[in-house]
Amino acid sequence: MKKRIISAFLISAMTVAAVAGCGSSGDSDKGGDGKYSGVTLNYWSMWNSSEPQGQVIQEAADAFSEETGATINIEWKGRDINTLLSSALSSEEAIDIFEDSYMNIAKNYKDYCYDLTEMAEEAGYADKSFGCFNDKVVEWAGFLCAITEQPQVGGVWYNKDIFEDCGITEVPTTWTEFMDVCEKITAKGYQPLALDGTYADFTFGYHMDRVIGQDVIKDLAMNGGWSENEGVIEAADDIIEFVGNGYLAEGAPDEYPASQNKMGTEQNVAMVVCANYVTSEVKNNTGADLNWGLFNYPEVEGGVDPSNAYAGANSLGIASYSENPQAAFDFVMFLTTGEYDQKMADTAIQIPADPSNTEPETLSGSIETLKATTSPLDWNMGMNDNSDLKANFKDTIIKLYEGKFNTGAEFAAAMDALY
Amino acid sequence: MKKNRLMIITFLLPCVISVVVMFLYPTIRTIVMSFFRIEDIADEVSTWSFYGFDNYQKIFGSSTWRVSMLNMGRIWLFGGIITLSLSLLFAVILTSGIRFKKFFRAAIYLPNVISAVAMATMWIQYIYNQDYGMLNKILETVGLDGVKWLGTDTKFWALLLAFVFGAIGYYMLIFLSGIERIPQDLFEAATIDGANKVKQFTKITLPLLRGIIKTNLTFWTVHTITFFVWSKMFSPIDTEATTIVPVVYLYDTAFGGKNTAVRDAGAGAAVGVVLAVLVLIIYFIMNKVIKDDELEF
Description:
The complex is a heterodimer.
Chain A: H1 2-22, E1 25-29, E2 40-45, H2 52-68, E3 71-76, H3 82-90, E4 97-101, H4 102-108, H5 117-122, H6 131-141, E5 147-159, H7 160-165, H8 175-187, E6 191-194, H9 200-212, H10 214-223, H11 230-244, H12 258-265, E7 269-275, H13 277-286, E8 292-295, E9 311-318, H14 325-336, H15 338-348, H16 366-372, H17 390-402, H18 408-416
Parallel strand pairs in A: 2-3, 2-4, 6-7
Antiparallel strand pairs in A: 1-3, 4-9, 5-7, 5-8, 5-9
Chain B: H1 2-33, E1 36-37, E2 49-50, H2 54-60, H3 63-94, H4 101-109, H5 116-127, H6 134-141, H7 155-181, H8 184-192, H9 197-208, H10 210-225, H11 229-234, H12 246-255, H13 265-289
Antiparallel strand pairs in B: 1-2
């Protein structure tokens, strides 16, 4: 008898747990007689509900429901959302709003996206967003299909306190100045640059862009010929000299995120080349509140691209078959402008999507950099265009930072050997 | 008889439908897809264009694919030798009447209970870390310099060691069940005849474990070919050539990696077909080489 009672109890507990486990979605339904009473919006998010981004999205959904009466079902799909979206959209699953990188939305899902041009014009979206992302989306997709939610900008992130301690008052703008800064930092007992292997191609991509420009990198990535390009050899020689001078942090290139974490744990590493999320990653991993600053990757004298910066964004798209595109658009604007955009920036420590909001102190300078960016660089500056070889590019570039090549020509030959 | 037939059909139908829908259809579709130029895995069939063997040509011509196959081959061969040898050794020791058998069995199997993500994190952060990892701390204690375990030269072997550590318990349990199946009187008779433990192992245990060895080799092959999580964990954020394996290559080819919008579902399907054929080839070779039906006990 006792066993039966225990069995019955366990079965009911399992059933309850199973049912609870199935409910991975967040549901905002405050009812009311608002503008969108009776409207249900299904939102597929790339975040999890426990992450700061997820929490702000949920708060915004609740507030929007309160205000308009709409019901918002949020499905937390996580980072692998890109493996699900195209099949879900093509089979017209119940999705109104979805999140992914702006490049994926504009290049891969554009056929399933609602044209937001008119609604954006009516809402004055151009004044509430960074033009560089909108221009790129229109260039790739032919129409506005993505609304920027979480912009990113890349460059050299540095610890202002270390710079101050080393007596560096001006950030370097050229490679020569950058090397001087590294020398001063080293002389004072600090280590200049943190580098994790995972960002080695991004960092070297930046340097190559400064010398030969992104378009040439793309061409080389697709067709080879690295050895025949003097700029590649020069860029690699610069890095060989940089590594030889001992300007990399101890152990770099390290396993992500060990090297960047040293900026927080040991606080004796001055800089890292990455996108803005490195600041929140270091804070989350180490608990250190660093006095961050950002400067653009320095110009290489005689190079073709003195100033372009990497910029990317997680964005929101609306399904072309959505029955409530206006309600979906209004919610997207509710989330990506004004109060909730500011909340997202403050909570998740990221750049606001609306330039009239303010950036967190740790990201100071990022809004100005994005405003000034007209032609953002791609991630890895075009090397990812050759999706087949990019893993090999990465390893060869990590070897460059490991000091495995004696000359730039050797490095370029190793790149050509991959074809 | 008619009633019986109806009952057989009724019971079989759900299984047959499940196999057709969930196994046969995706398999056939993948094979067909591998001969077409398809960008997105969800593209309508009407948008596919016939590509012949070009997808196969593309992957076989790719240096990344070749690196991934080489990595998989090394995992299969070196990892297989180490894992199966150690798991057999542990199984033999545990069945030799040692004390605390249950404890050791549980301890060796324990890594299988822990998620691969947690295990990989432990190895990367606490064992291989250059600054505070266990291995370098041991080296420092004996006065040696630390090693960069996760550098491009050593990362693959670091990955392999971590994976093997977790896999041994699983194969040990299968060997254990096989050894425990062998009648004890065979060993007793051999002992009376004067055979020592080594002789008993080579002349009784090993021959009677042929079937189990074949099973373990098949499992190991499938395990190696579907190797994914460990590779992903040892190349966080984006794929690296030192740790890439064919399934990761397939994933990146079909879905695109970090910050790349380039996808090729047709080539991804071709990778899947090649891997499936590889499993079949190895399975048939093992069936030919290892015969387990000669002995009865």
